[in-house]
Amino acid sequence: MRIVLANWGSRGEIEPCAAVGRELQRRGHDVCLVVPPELVEFVESVELPAVAYGLELDRISGAYRDFWRDFFRGFWKIRKLGRQWREISEPLIECRDQVVTTLRLLAEGADLLVTGMNYEDAAANVAESVDVPFATLHYFPMRANGELLSFLPARMGRTAMKFFWWLSWRGPKKTEDAERRRLGLPKATSPWTKRIAERGSLEVQAYDEFCFPGLAAEWSTWGDQRPFVGTLTMGLTSDTDEEVAAWIASGTPPIYFGFGSLPVESPSDTMAMIGAACAQLGERALVCAAATDFGNISHLDHVKVVETMNFAAVFPACRAVVHHGGAGTTAAGLRAGVPTLILWTGVDQKVWGDRMKRLGVGTARRFSVTTERSLVADLRTATAPQCLVRARELARRMTTSAQSIARAADVLENFARLKRAG
Q1: Rounded Cα distance, 247 and 144, in Å
Q2: What phi-psi label fits residue 363: left (phi over 0), alpha (psi between -120 and 50 degrees) or beta?
Q3: Which sequence spans correspond to the domains of the chain?
């Protein structure tokens, strides 16, 4: 079969597609990934063919970080937030025609089009226009449900999510109407989330079911349309693996710190905060720089900074993990059986921060309000014995990376075959 997997975003969004794509290729399928320009090289490094679409993430990453920082500081400042949101949305809309054109060229005649959460609506329109089976990968519960917004009663939470998706569709409806017209489709009369479900598409839940108790039962009316497969990660080695392993072995287990693909606003202040908090607690810190440049910051004896690392190898040797709350990083911490502190920026990261607290494996705080004092307090909470015990308990319930990838490949294969046979 010919299978196209498309997603736009950071490496955290792309790695799950690459993980399942590599497994499908191993099974003999013709696989192509469609990813942001700067991640083509990453995909090709794991021996998968890749095509670029959309803009580079760094065009909007700073604006995205600043929007959520200011939203939680002053959500009532509508004009300011409106200007900031346009800094994010307008570049994405400007390249939407190119996104759709690329997807349509690749999806024509394919046996399955798979997409992630970004540009999901565009991919759904393309799949409908070329009559190709369609599947999505979700890294947290995106469809209306009563479990995600745990601070609300279940019925109210479902209603709030339905309204959010209606608003997300209704706002840029003129853009979508024009897009559907170009694709030879009629105007849409309902949000794409509803159309995807009604078309019988596969909505793969790429996280562990137990993280959201009651969700599977609530969605049971959808039958096999929303299977839970576990988080899709690759556990790739890095050039620093031996160096990091040697440093860890030279002293007490460190606390890991990482902030993902969004650069922190002030690297020097962040490093000073980490260094001071760990010194006060008598801990060592292992920092993964990723998108943040810590290069011109003074060296601290109890802090080691590396550009990349293999979480699957490093996390089990850590005392705790502190990170931004990406789904993949969160799952790596849970699989390692270590406590977690999530310092979140965006709302999807807050979802996983709230989960860590509800699961009893750590705590969470908004990164933009984190101080040395709050970091010390949060680290004490996360490293308390009860969090470690709970983390070890949950680690035994987590699907492994290999299990998750195999399950995802199974459901995608079976879905494509069933749809084509029908």
Answers
A1: 45
A2: beta
A3: 2-54+95-231+401-421, 241-395
